[in-house]
Amino acid sequence: MWLADRLANLVSGLGGPRDKSTGNLHVHVPRAKAELDAAYRDNWLARKVVDIVPFDMLREWRAWQAPPEVAAALATSEERLCLRDRLLRALRLARLHGGAALLIGDGAPDPNLPLDPETVGQGGLHYLHILPRGQIQAGAIERDPLSPWFGEPKGYTIAGGQPVHPSRVVRLLGAALPDDAMSDGWGDSVLQALLEAIDQATAAAAHIAAMLPEAKQDVISVPGLSQHLSTEDGTRHLTERFAYAARMKGLFGMLLLEGDGRSPEGERYQQKQLDFSGLPEVARLFLQVAAGAADIPVTRLLGQSPAGLNATGESDTRNYHDHVAARQAVELTPAIARLDRLLIRDALGRSEPALRYAWRPLAQASEREKAEVGRLKAETAAMLAREGVVPPAVLGRGVEGWLSGADLFPGIAAAFGRSAG
């Protein structure tokens, strides 16, 4: 026996058979790839929803916590493999289609064999190829909790039937799915749940734009209009008459009509105007709903200043930056961890398990703020040097790394390199 545990009101009918909402039922209707592609190409709001988050996740990139020469070698490998560009395009495709992949190439003749990081030497990575969801098919999900590939596809097949080992693939997902719904190894398009709100927002603006030509209409009441239009000559004479009247109004700003405009025998002129006073708020409301559904503040989605008394938008921007930083840490960093281990060997020719990096913050400090932070760090370094807490060579190395990456003095990293040589 099923028991319904919900709020019910016998007087108003809430929760009972008279409640219109009791018939609501959520039915999943997948969006076709052609529809998603059309929305991305033709709807400006859908394109921004897909593009903004990946762009902001990679906009400031990352900083390796390593000595300058090591960081420079890693940056060189990233640039040679076009990692930032490949990752941005793959993340956009993942959000649009629910998934995408990066194929790691090391020159192996059989991509179905595992890619052992120990076999990758300096310059050992040859390419990173972007594979949209339609060009790579994921195999069955590994359900053995003792397997290192638990929760991931056991293998992949790319276009042409070539099998690929999962160690050679960086899998990027779109919107998350319930675990039992991930039958093909991918996620949902982010537009799957947002497209209705996006369509409503763009439709509201389109309806308002369609009303603009009707904002002002001239209305002329003509006695015996039906009789005039009942004959071909009458229709022609009436059309010519008011076409001439319209030209007079356009040229001289006056409209000539027969009669006094009040009596039944005379023609009467009126002008109707539409009231647009509440429509901007309606359009803005739909845009706010779409922005909330996309987890992107209106100030970022529309590029507009916040409205309202004493509104600065700083809290919205700060919350959004925290949201992006969380996605970098929780989603992106684990997704590319396998690739990063290979990247370290490609750059240095050896493994460095202790190497770490940090995503640069989206909110960039002003020159004044940079100088203030630099002053505090310089005072801290001077205090450590006076107290002798840190060995001078170690402290000097740390100060060198800080100054090289702090963007306070352009060219100082190269100058450190020349002095060391």
Automatic annotation (TrEMBL):
The Anti-CBASS protein Acb1-like N-terminal domain sits at 35-381
Protein name per its UniProtKB record: Anti-CBASS protein Acb1-like N-terminal domain-containing protein
Instruction: Name its species.
Output: Methylobacterium variabile
